[in-house]
């Protein structure tokens, strides 16, 4: 159900910063808004005709919020709409936005751990944030998103996958997982090494798991060889990959 603007890790800018979206008519849900995202959103013309934009922010690393200010400014000044930002630590995101000149009258913030909202054509959506294990310098979250069609898990950046998520996948409650996956394994890794993911997910469930936030070391044929899926970016005409 999710489409992707970028699928790369912070330094793998060739694939764009990892960011997903659902666009239905004049309404859009955007997941993360890293440094390369506003540029790609403009290239894809995604904000054309948008009347309602909701943005879920998983954490405050630059490859996840680097162009959030530009998107809010563009919506406020050009589209004349206020972005609705979902992030479960209000004080942190408010202070970041204040520092970059985004004032509180330009956006609406929802800091709840569970939220319900409607999106054109998709009906009522329930989102529940899940605390992640990423870095010591900031909180990081993933979420479970429940629509009338699908229940999905989105990891954000995380070095682990919660047992509860795997249980839900195995007992048929979860339809799809989007998981931060990387190609290097080392002590203190803040992302999830592909083969650690493979240790956790039985082969019969791997088709439901989409690897994302790809670093320069991960290989597409290795991901697919293990039976996982991999997310793909929306194509932009004339972009050199
Ligand atoms: Zn990241
Ligand atoms: Zn991160």
Structure keywords:
seven-stranded mixed sheet, binds zinc ion, 27% strand, alpha/beta, six-stranded mixed sheet, 241 residues, Metallo-beta-lactamase, Chain A
Would you kindly provide a written description of the structure presented here, covering whatever features stand out?
- By secondary structure, the chain is of the alpha/beta class.
- It has a single domain (3-229), classed as Ribonuclease Z/Hydroxyacylglutathione hydrolase-like (Metallo-beta-lactamase, Chain A, 4-Layer Sandwich), CATH 3.60.15.
- The chain has seven helices and 13 strands.
- It has helices at residues 37-43, 62-65, 68-79, 90-99, 163-170, 194-200, 220-225; strands at 3-6, 19-24, 27-31, 52-56, 83-86, 107-110, 114-119, 123-131, 141-146, 151-154, 176-180, 209-212, 229-230.
- The protein has a seven-stranded mixed sheet. A six-stranded mixed sheet has the order 1-2-3-4-5-6.
- It is globular, with a radius of gyration of 17 Å.
- It starts with a strand and ends in an 11-residue tail after the last strand.
- The model has no long low-confidence stretch (mean pLDDT 96).
- The chain binds zinc ion (ZN) (2 copies).
What general form does the structure show? Answer: globular
Task: Give the H and E element order.
Answer: EEEHEHHEHEEEEEHEHEHE
Overall mean confidence score, pLDDT: 96
What is the CATH architecture annotation?
4-Layer Sandwich
The CATH superfamily appears as Ribonuclease Z/Hydroxyacylglutathione hydrolase-like
- Look up the CATH topology: Metallo-beta-lactamase, Chain A
Distance between the termini: 23 Å
As a percent range, the share of strand residues is 25-35%
List the domain count as a whole number: 1
- Tell me how many strands there are: 13
- In percent, how helical is the residue content? 10-25%
Radius of gyration: 17 Å
Small-molecule components bound: zinc ion
Query: What top-tier CATH class fits best?
Result: Alpha Beta
| Sequence stretches where pLDDT stays below 50 over 5 or more residues | none
Give, in spatial order, the strands making up the sheet with the most strands. Answer: 7-8-9-10-11-12-13
Main sheet specs: 7 strands, mixed
Class per helix and strand makeup: alpha/beta
Provide a count of the helices: 7
């Amino acid at each position: 159900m999710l489409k992707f603007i970028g699928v790369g890790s912070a330094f793998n800018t060739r694939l764009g910063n990892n960011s997903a979206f659902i666009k239905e008519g004049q309404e859009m849900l955007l997941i993360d808004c890293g440094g390369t995202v506003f540029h790609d959103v403009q290239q894809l013309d995604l904000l054309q005709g948008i009347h309602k934009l909701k943005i879920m922010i998983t954490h405050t690393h630059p490859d996840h919020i680097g162009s959030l200010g530009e998107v809010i400014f563009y919506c406020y000044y050009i589209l004349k709409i206020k972005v609705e930002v979902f992030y479960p630590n209000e004080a942190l995101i408010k202070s970041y936005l204040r520092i970059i000149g985004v004032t509180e009258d330009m956006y609406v913030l929802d800091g709840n751990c569970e939220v319900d909202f409607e999106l054109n054509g998709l009906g009522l959506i329930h989102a529940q944030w899940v605390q992640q294990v990423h870095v010591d310098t900031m909180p990081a979250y993933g979420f479970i998103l429940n629509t009338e069609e699908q229940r999905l898990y989105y990891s954000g950046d995380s070095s682990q996958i919660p047992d509860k998520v795997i249980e839900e996948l195995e007992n048929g409650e979860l339809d799809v997982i989007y998981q931060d996956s990387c190609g290097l394994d080392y002590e203190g890794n803040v992302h999830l090494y592909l083969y650690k993911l493979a240790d956790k997910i039985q082969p019969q469930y791997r088709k439901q798991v989409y690897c994302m936030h790809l670093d320069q070391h991960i290989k597409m044929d290795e991901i697919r060889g293990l039976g996982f899926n991999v997310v793909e970016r929306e194509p932009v005409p004339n972009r050199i990959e």
